[in-house]
Amino acid sequence: MNAAECVIRTAETAGVELCFANPGTTEMPLVLALDGARMRCVLGLHETICTGAADGYGRLSGKPALTLLHLGPGLANGLANLHNARRARTPVVNLVGDHASWHRDADAPLTMDIEALARTVSRWTARMVRASEAGSLTAEAITRARAGRGGVATLVLPHDLLLEEVAEGVPPMPRYEPAPAADPGAIAAAAELLRGSAASALFLGGPALWGEGLRLAGRIARATGAVLVCETGFARLATGAGRPPVRRLPYFPEQAQALLDGFAHVIGCGAKPPVSFFGWPGKPSRYLDDREGVIWVAGTEEDAVAALRELADALGAREDHPGTRHDPPPAPTGPLDGAKLAAALVRELPEDAVVVPTAVTNSYPFSAIAERARPHEQLALTGGAIGEGPALAIGAALAAPGRKVINLEADGSGAYALQALWTQARERLDILTIVCANRAYRILRLELERSGQAPTGRVTRALTSLEDPSIDWVQVARGLGVPGIRVDTGEALVEALRRALAEPGPCVIEAVLS
Amino acid sequence: MNAAECVIRTAETAGVELCFANPGTTEMPLVLALDGARMRCVLGLHETICTGAADGYGRLSGKPALTLLHLGPGLANGLANLHNARRARTPVVNLVGDHASWHRDADAPLTMDIEALARTVSRWTARMVRASEAGSLTAEAITRARAGRGGVATLVLPHDLLLEEVAEGVPPMPRYEPAPAADPGAIAAAAELLRGSAASALFLGGPALWGEGLRLAGRIARATGAVLVCETGFARLATGAGRPPVRRLPYFPEQAQALLDGFAHVIGCGAKPPVSFFGWPGKPSRYLDDREGVIWVAGTEEDAVAALRELADALGAREDHPGTRHDPPPAPTGPLDGAKLAAALVRELPEDAVVVPTAVTNSYPFSAIAERARPHEQLALTGGAIGEGPALAIGAALAAPGRKVINLEADGSGAYALQALWTQARERLDILTIVCANRAYRILRLELERSGQAPTGRVTRALTSLEDPSIDWVQVARGLGVPGIRVDTGEALVEALRRALAEPGPCVIEAVLS
Lengths: 514, 514
What we know:
The structure is a homodimer. Chain A has about 525 residues and is of the alpha/beta class. Chain A folds into three domains: about 5-165, Thiamin diphosphate (ThDP)-binding fold, Pyr/PP domains (Rossmann fold, 3-Layer(aba) Sandwich), CATH 3.40.50; about 185-315, 3-Layer(aba) Sandwich (Rossmann fold), CATH 3.40.50.1220; about 340-510, Rossmann fold, CATH 3.40.50.970. Helix content of chain A is about 40%, strand content about 15%. The first copy, chain A, has a seven-stranded mixed sheet, with helices on both faces. In chain A, helix 1 crosses helix 2 (about 30-35), helix 1 packs parallel to helix 6 and helix 9 packs parallel to helix 11.
């Protein structure tokens, strides 16, 4: 067994089932080792697809996928979505090949400071310096990725060492460090606040927003009347009929501040104390600073589900929240806009779907009414690095076979990740991409208008417009192996959604917004 | 005048004429400032297009373009091509917006360690900490980018400071530090070697490969019989009829070593001593180590043209090299391969074209016979980060209006940069992209075969194949606003080339290789 085989066998022994790869010459020993493994390997045409897919997979499965990346430039290409994964606290293990150890100081063309790049997104970064470490470092990378809430671990693997025979074999897997428990004092204090009659909110993130966590949060909401509020950029949210309603913290600061100011008490769990997305002039930076009635029972590193369980116990909250009702809006008609698009999707959304609402402006109308749809889950953009949606959808589809994945994408952010459609086609993934084609980086025009500037200058118009030419998404999708259809009315969208949702496999609907 | 306006006016005063942008909210003050400027602004749908275009523009014009990038994720997306620019020693000035300075420690979603990212590719990195520095830091960024051979400079600009009024105005521009002169002792020693009768080579890079540098190198070759050899990954090469022949150092190490071993003396100028692209087992790392008869008259930071002038003077080499003859190969017929594709391109290449031969394997057959074409220039991949070609072509077309730009691209590397076609369409750039569609990452299969491994395993085949589905480049191009045609014979390729070269504007030829 050579070191490359030891890396892959160790990963398989640890339960890793998937590798998103765009390998090069230095990674070939790992590719050959994968030939002898059971792990599924998925090719991305650009590394940003690999890392975004690993994020989506990790969020839904709770397990790390491998990414296989080609030296510094390959890692660099994947960094933006690793940044999103870091913000989502997704377990991901990057295997980054490097030059032979004896060749590194020759400063050959591809040489970069890989560790400097890796550290910007990784909670753990290491370089193999002896082949005998192959198994132990791989085990440690996986352990670090899975510890607590999860995170990104990056292991740099020089080519010559990967080829060396190793005697060590697959090491025993270290225990995953569980997330630390909440502070009992904080639980008691939070329970005390929630027992009062003042308006209260639970501000939730991470595992408090799905599965057992959300169920416990719903019980607390039912018992105390507290409102559930989630991070703007949540990693994963279960919503729709039968789930407790959760309000998404608005993107714009005055709306976010107004929502939070409406509560005398805010109990945080699984999230960081909320901050504004940008530092807008005259607007707040941290929404909950300098006020009373704020208690955090679990931050981003503590065990949020355990904290909710203790809090529910302390409150005697034992009954599940009845949840929202399936209450779809009427079918939209006429020329499309974001609200009509949201209405159509909420009507047609199949049960247990995974929605990836990464359209920068047009995800919000959907978020506002998604609780009226059939029960489903959503994966949002956590780190603000746009263009992740089509790759997140790949990872989600691989983590959740049998569930329809729907990427509600913008034309601006979707254009970052055209290459993802090819992987969706190759892997026959059950992904519907709805491109909200408003032919602009609309958010930038909104931001300018909000700041009192008209987006009418020559350069401002050009740099915020996606016209001249407009992207023909149907042709692009077909060129990459995915069938597509263009619609511009509510009627046509509903019809296209029904067809697309009835058939498995990837599909693109270009929804032209007026 | 606010700080953003001061940044842009300072850049214009320094002669900057172009900005490749994908801005976000934090960069809006700079976008508004650009509304009042003469500078041309070009939108890229992904930051890798912006940085690759800036590299192409800087290589041909000798001047830095600005890139305008959105915080850490925007810079991260552009890093791979900035790595190529660093290796090419291209002047580039990155303006990276950041959060308001008072918001940075709130660790909002987009917050990253921008400087850590920037330093991996930049010779100079700075952050504005007072608005009053806007002009002086911009002037310094431009000066550092232009100093010597050129390089990447990155300036981080917090949003709140960009909005502040500044009294300082546009500062005087510091003098560009010229590249230091060569060592006279090295010149004399090199001349001594070249006067002998033993086989000698000039190993050339940077400005020794075009314009006055190449002319001087040609004189020396004519006077002494020395062979001109260039870096594998040259930044810019003038070749074709009338130019002195230059042999490109082969990619594979045994071929490169054999070529260099054939010379008793190697005189280096404008390049680093050559190293192998990868550290292959049993192959050399540095080709010229441990041997005699090697003298470097100018490295990558010294003035290579001045060194060649002094060397030519010392040798009394005053007559220009007669150069190669226009000697196109016969028109190819039948099913296409890389050699036939090269023959067709060499036949049809218009005078003064700029060729971007970034197809990973299929650029080499073209390189081998390009000197028989009409005079033209080439821009190669310098840093090994694939996928730069379509963006390099954008920059070249903007730097050289009136000259046809031809990107000889692979399907594997071209798929990294589909988004570039949209910018080519929007800016009506005179770029012909020839996609060498072999439906594989062929280089990886070649590398495996060379290492004695058959690329036949399930995973190896999947991860090196671009089939299932094959990309339909004609549809993708049309979807992005660029007309396209598919050919699979020599006859059809020649016909398609003639049509495409006769008409201005972007075009894609998908050349399906057998």
